Structure formats: C-alpha cells, structure tokens
Amino acid sequence: MTHRPATFAALLGLTRAASAIGDFWIQDDFCARVKGASDDHPVTYQDPDTKAETVHGTADGRKACLTHCLTYVATQALVAGAGARALGIQVHPVAAAAALAISFGSHYAADRRIPGKGLLEQLANKTGTGGFYKLTAHGMNGAFQLDSAWHHGWETVAALVATTKATTR
Asked: For 103, what's the count of Cα atoms within 13 Å in the CB-facing half-sphere?
C-alpha cells in the first residue's frame, strides 16, 4: 500500500539534504568557480595549494558544471536511495531515474551562470527581480537566494516524480 504524502515528504526531505551536501560539501572549489566560465567571460582560477593561475572559457565552464552536476546527482541518488531503504520506501527505478534526470537538467541550467546570459539572471530580469539577483549588500546575495529557490522548486518536482508508483515495504 502506498502512503504517498508521507513518502513524498520523506523523499523531499532526503533530496533537500542531499542537495545541500552535494552543493556545499561535495562540489570542489574549481567547479564552483569555473562552472559559469565562457569565452566572453573567462574565469581566472587560482589553485589554493600551488597559487598557480589558469584561465578558463566555455569548454572548461561546461565541463566544470557537468562535473558538479554529476557529483550532485550522485549524492542525491546515494542519500535518497539509502534513506528510502532505511525508511522502507521502495521507489520505482524508472521514477527514480526520471527524478534524477530532472534534478540534473534543472541544476545544470541554473548553474551555468554566464554573466548576462545565465538562465536565472535572465528569468530574474524578465520577472522584475533583476535588482535582487544582483544584490550583494546587507548580508544578502540575491543570486544565491534565487538559485536556492530554483533548486528547491525543482527538487519538489523531482520528489513528486520519484514517488510515482512508490510503495512501502
């Protein structure tokens, strides 16, 4: 018998925790700094150990974002999978794969933050929150807040998809 509301709440909580772990603990410094690089807006990265500086464009930005999103989704799969197992929730494999694909795609789209061209910046400008997106004063970072809200929304969609045909053991 499926207890969808409880199953959904449990998977959403697991996904949210995994998201924070993947974004803030698993993502390395290189990916965090370079994932928005483009040929028009290159990123200079300084290795924290060697202090060597390298310049990165579009190809490296895409690769860094891809690497981050793969480790992010792998973290979600491990945390949500282990948590669901511990809670006795059996997630349908196709639903789990679809949920992870949603998470991967939405995360990549948001994290390729090319100045003036990134999806979140464009959405913020079109919805009248462009000023908030650029806010970096008063202890606030608008881009970070809007990024978090974007991810929370898509994690909710992914959790809904993941609970499709889910059962309790």
From this structure: 32
